[in-house]
Design a protein that fits this description.
By secondary structure, the chain is of the alpha+beta class. The chain contains five helices and ten strands. The strands form two sheets. Strands 1, 2, 3, 9 and 10 form a five-stranded antiparallel beta sheet that branches. Strands 4, 5, 6, 7 and 8 form a five-stranded antiparallel beta sheet that branches. The longest helix is centred in the last third of the chain and has 29 residues.
């Protein structure tokens, strides 16, 4: 994943305790100040905003392999399809494809005075390099007797949720760095966060300024399809940090 640090945003710092501001209001008109319990000094805070954008490519791809045959005899049509179907499934097993990622369906019907059988193998890949190698091998060995669909790239729900979470965490980290720099500048020490609020989130697929989306999917390369299926997530947060006085170093006797 890659991310871009957000541009600087507004920073609000409060370093004067509220108790000192209220001393003028403690006097009663026409007389002396009334005795009262001294209020504890209010906590000093630094308020900062942070933003981040992260990107994640698709983690799954689906390819469909179809083989079919039309013969005058039912047995011949079945034999022709099953022979190529067995070759496809054997290649997948040799390449380490798990059974749960391979779905096989068969269709057998009468067409006028002939019999037509078609088998479809739906394969889900997690390794795109292996997907390309298998597709190239099937085209080389089975030629026009096999039809291989264009890969469909997509994200699993877990990967999308992880992307959202990553965007928020990076935005908070950017806000913390900004607050730390402000405290260093004014000679203070950054304390613990008092409030963290995610104010805005956005998600989009592909590039917003990419004009390739209007092109036919069949004309795109594999890398272009992966780029188009890449999801981007952004997050903006608002964080309040406690501000402490500069810690004095203890003198050693």
């Amino acid at each position: 994943m890659s991310w871009q640090q957000a541009p600087p945003s507004r920073v609000f710092v409060e370093l004067v305790p509220w108790a000192e501001r209220g001393r003028e209001r403690s006097a009663v008109s026409g007389g002396d100040a009334l005795p009262s319990a001294q209020a504890p000094p209010a906590a000093r805070e630094v308020h900062v905003g942070g933003a981040a954008q992260v990107s994640g490519g698709p983690d799954r791809a689906q390819v469909t392999v179809r083989v079919g045959s039309t013969k005058g005899a039912a047995a011949e049509a079945q034999r022709s399809v099953c022979r190529r179907l067995d070759y496809v499934t054997q290649r997948l097993q040799l390449q380490g494809l798990q059974a749960e990622n391979v779905t096989v369906t068969k269709d057998f019907r009468r067409v006028e005075k002939a019999y037509h059988m078609e088998a479809e193998v739906c394969i889900t890949f997690t390794e795109f390099g292996k997907m390309q190698n298998i597709c190239n091998l099937l085209v080389e060995k089975l030629d026009s007797s096999v039809i291989i669909s264009q890969p469909q790239f997509y994200h699993t729900p877990g990967s999308i949720e992880n992307l959202r979470r990553q965007a928020c965490l990076v935005a908070v980290e950017n806000a913390r760095r900004k607050a730390q720099e402000v405290c260093n500048l004014v000679g203070q020490t950054l304390g613990k966060p008092l409030l963290i609020k995610e104010e805005e989130t956005k998600e989009w697929e592909g590039q917003e300024d990419d004009h390739q989306s209007s092109r036919l999917l069949s004309s795109l390369t594999v890398q272009q399809k992966i780029k188009n299926a890449t999801i981007h997530a952004s997050s903006k947060v608002f964080v309040n940090f406690e501000v402490k006085g500069k810690e004095k170093k203890k003198k050693h006797l």
